[in-house]
Amino acid sequence: MMASGGMNTPGTDVMRTQFTDDEMRFLVDAAHRHGLPVTAHAHGLPAVQQAVAAGVDALEHCGCLTETGVVVPDDLLVTLAERRLPVGAALGAPSAEALARMPKALHDAMARAGITPEMVRGIRLDTVRRMREGGVQLVAGRDSGIAPQLAHGSMHEGVEFLVDAGASEAEALISATSRAAGACGVGQTKGSLRPGFDADVLVVDGDLSSDIGRLGEVRAVFLAGHRVH
Question: 105 versus 154: which is more confidently predicted?
Fold first, then answer.
């Protein structure tokens, strides 16, 4: 559900919630009664806090934006870590050129918070670093296809961003494989190379343990043991 508006959606305010607390709880409870998990898209801190309080099962973005900048309260970090809520962080940061094309409302919000386009990457790195150090279960994501700088096929850049935020290469790869599979409810058959699992394999040209950038140099892709690329 869209707990907050989207960065590229004119007319929405990412700093505000799109549902009342009662509406959010009703939606989550209704989904859970039918055995369905709920993921909340949340940029603003109020939407993140509301979604977590309502009992969602995962978060997208979890940007924790406020009118004065990014604020990640300690108690929120503790709750995210204790509940092991997967956070699909859409890892990375838009370039200054990409930010220039975003809606006026976002520019106005950045100006009020004293944030310049050149500061965005550093702020995003600090936020992701604090989350992972706090034990939050980050899942590599990219928002692929939403904009030219986030084109399909750029997923590896999100994994590289997690390494830039202090994760080891192994941890970053886990965020895109076994942890991602678990978050999507298919962790019993996908996300790991082991007997009984689907033989989904990505072959790259290089040693990822020493150069995570090689993840973008794809040599072959296998789906259920059959080569598809």
Answer: 154
